[in-house]
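User: Sequence recovery, please. Input:
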């Protein structure tokens, strides 16, 4: 679905590459996680993908079409993104206004706007909150609204850049389980960016970033098995993993999975 070929980017000429010649394939309908410590280049990758910065080297293909000046607006309209801080994303006075905002910008007619807003709110299980004020919601609920805003656009690719990192464990779990459900039901292609290895359990593929490079890619098991790689990349092995490896037959990534097994 999305192919990066030798993509490189720097913020300033005299600086090192923030993205250092990266090649990644994001497959349609799959969940790809990108993990990496702070400053490894994850958000820069998002900026290049979303066109927040135009000055990159290398090639990007979407469904086989090379991204260029003529088609980029069209091709990128198939992506939607949810950022880290839910509080910075609200523009509407009510939840439904907020979710409808992106649609209004797209020039979608009122009737369809209402339909899509309800559809998206239902998907994240927040329809009952549509008349509420966004800033009064819990962190997890806010992020679910942000996801609804993205889903109302009916994106083929949903990108989440550390979208749970401001949430408490309950909010985190809430958002992740909504995403797992959406991924299953709608077959949305997901690009999930995180520095927290406990969040990648649903991934079909994991890409590890370090110092602007994509240093490894593989299945969850392949990545977890490579302790040296995780250490070099400054990634913390989750406690649940260490415990399950010491005591049990396999790897149990989340607290819930481990408790179930035990
Ligand atoms: N707006 C910016 N201007 C200059 N340098 C930046 C900017 N944003 C990020 N960087 C630098 O680019 C590198 C990658 O950062 P970033 O992509 O934000 O990493 P991550 O999202 O993995 O934490 C870091 O060295 C960071 O300091
Ligand atoms: Mg970032």
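Assistant: Recovered sequence (262 residues):
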């Amino acid at each position: 679905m999305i192919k990066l070929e030798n993509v490189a980017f720097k913020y300033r000429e005299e600086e090192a590459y923030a993205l250092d010649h990266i090649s990644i394939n994001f497959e349609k309908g799959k969940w790809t996680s990108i993990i990496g410590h702070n400053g490894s280049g994850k958000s820069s990758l998002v900026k290049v993908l979303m066109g927040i910065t135009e000055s990159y080297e290398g090639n990007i293909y979407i469904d086989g079409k090379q991204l260029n000046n003529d088609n980029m607006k069209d091709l990128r309209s198939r992506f939607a993104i949810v950022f880290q801080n839910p509080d910075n994303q609200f523009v509407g006075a009510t939840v439904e206004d907020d979710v409808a905002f992106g649609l209004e910008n797209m020039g979608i007619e009122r009737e369809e706007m209402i339909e899509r807003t309800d559809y998206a709110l239902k998907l994240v299980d927040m329809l009952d909150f549509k008349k509420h004020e966004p800033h009064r919601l819990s962190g997890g609920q806010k992020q679910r609204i942000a996801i609804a805003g993205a889903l109302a656009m009916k994106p083929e690719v949903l990108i989440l850049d550390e979208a749970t990192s401001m949430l408490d464990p309950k909010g985190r779990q809430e958002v992740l389980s909504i995403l797992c459900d959406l991924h299953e039901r709608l077959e949305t292609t997901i690009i999930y960016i995180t520095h927290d290895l406990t969040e990648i359990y649903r991934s079909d593929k994991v890409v590890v970033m370090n110092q602007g490079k994509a240093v490894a890619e593989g299945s969850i098991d392949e990545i977890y098995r490579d302790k040296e790689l995780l250490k070099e990349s400054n990634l913390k092995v989750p406690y649940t993993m260490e415990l399950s490896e010491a005591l049990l037959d396999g790897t149990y990534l989340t607290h819930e999975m481990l408790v179930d097994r035990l």
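Strands lie at 2-9, 19-26, 31-35, 57-62, 65-66, 79-82, 157-161, 189-194, 205-210, 213-218.
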